[in-house]
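Quick start: read one record
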Amino acid sequence: MEEYTAPSNFIHDFIDEDLKNGVYDHVQTRFPPEPNGYLHIGHAKAIQINFSIAKKYGGKCNLRLDDTNPSKEDTEYVDAIKEDIRWLGYQWDEVLYASSYFDFIHECAIKLIKKGKAYVCDLSAEEISKSRGTLTEPGTESPYRNRSVEENLDLFNRMTAGEFPDGSRVLRAKIDMASSNMNMRDPVIYRIAHVTHHQTGDKWCVYPLYDFAHPLSDTKEGVTHSLCSLEFENHRPLYDWFLRELELPNPSRQIEFARLNLNYCLTSKRKCLQLVKEGIVDGWNDPRMATICGMRRRGYTPAAIRDFINRVGVSKAYSVVDFGLLEACVRDDLNQNAPRAMAVLRPLKVIIDNYPEGKEEEIELPVNQDKPEMGTRKTVFTREIFVEKEDFMIEPPKKYFRLFPGNEVRLRGAYFVKCVGYDTDENGEVTAVHCTYDPESKGGNSPDGRKVKGTLHWVSDHSTEFEARLYDRLFNVPNPSDESKGSFKNNLNPDSLVVLKGCRLEGGIKDLKPGDTFQFMRQGYFCVDTSSTEDNIVFNRTVALNSSWK
């Protein structure tokens, strides 16, 4: 096994203490997502914590799908979860399902009834909610709370047999309606749902709720440390109550950590689904989404995401992380590993008047100037080339060192060229720029030692056309979920996607496939989109070279 190098944190301290005191003689964790949507960047933190801790202690980490709510779950999400975990660089020991424990969980419910610790309640969901009280006032006991064990067993068996309609009855734990912790005020542990389950089919019409199924699944599975985000801290007394009342051997220990909150992002599955259904985004894997599959499509790398989570760290303190840190991690990784290429997003033709017509010559450039071991690439130089429109001005401001009448610039890896004129159309728009070149300056160096301040990237007329999708943040406020000013959709960034057609990529870049990533010189990092074809090449901007967000 590879040496574990991640920094220690308070979770490790708890585990070290448990191992030292003989509470456990091994470590086993699990990642337990509900398959009702796609994983997002917050899940990536939970994945990394659970899998890395198992690795540190030479233990196991299972993937367990928390499929206790079949009306919202689907095998599509199961498959997507598996793909995302593998892509992030992790591999589970086993794939398990909470539904695999339904028989055991049902037996535990009956055990609680027999102990007088659970009862069937006929109150509606709304009535139960009202009877729970408030943070400062105790709840009100259900009129069905003191049913006999025999009556509760009979009703629960009839619930299980499908005699009653959805919502007519529930099974509740009998704890303390005056508890200061509202999770302990006789929580619902089973409800009726005549729904076909993606794993168990129509075997069940009653399903356990998360708070009941989770500790039982953990302990049945052999999980030693149940690691979850901080919002479950108030649920821990209930977690422990179930394990204690059911007298299960080797009970799991729940430990909470602060979840990952990233500004300018939305992770609510309900709201993300709304974005997808209303066509505001191009599916769950839209490159502007905070989903792992969206980040993969945008060109983020697993290494960058892992680095980001390591930099954020593990703590119990609530915090919001700036999106710019994630972008910085992506830049750092791609700067080291992405090959370079020249691409022109808004092409302007440049005609080199004194370059021989019909002549072509190869220009050799480094694949990545920071990594000579990556070798070189070749591109073709011709009489007609293309540069960025913004690299030419008729009347430039001061300190503009690019092309303008009478000015000389360097074409990267090629020659010095001097602007001698330009063509316009009937509207006065510049259609072409005319230059002359210095044949002695091949490679971008002048033999007489004269210096130029501007160096431009370029492509020749052998270049390949493509479509560029320039992505930015989907929302223009740090907390898009803040609906104090109306719907979260009011916070959408109108410039989160700009589509440019007719862009040009240097001709030496061949055999492009989805996911291929490049640094386009002076433009940013781009990757080939999943929708790209040989006849319609599409590049997504992964991240700009430097942060430009205001």
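The two ends are 45 Å apart (CA to CA).
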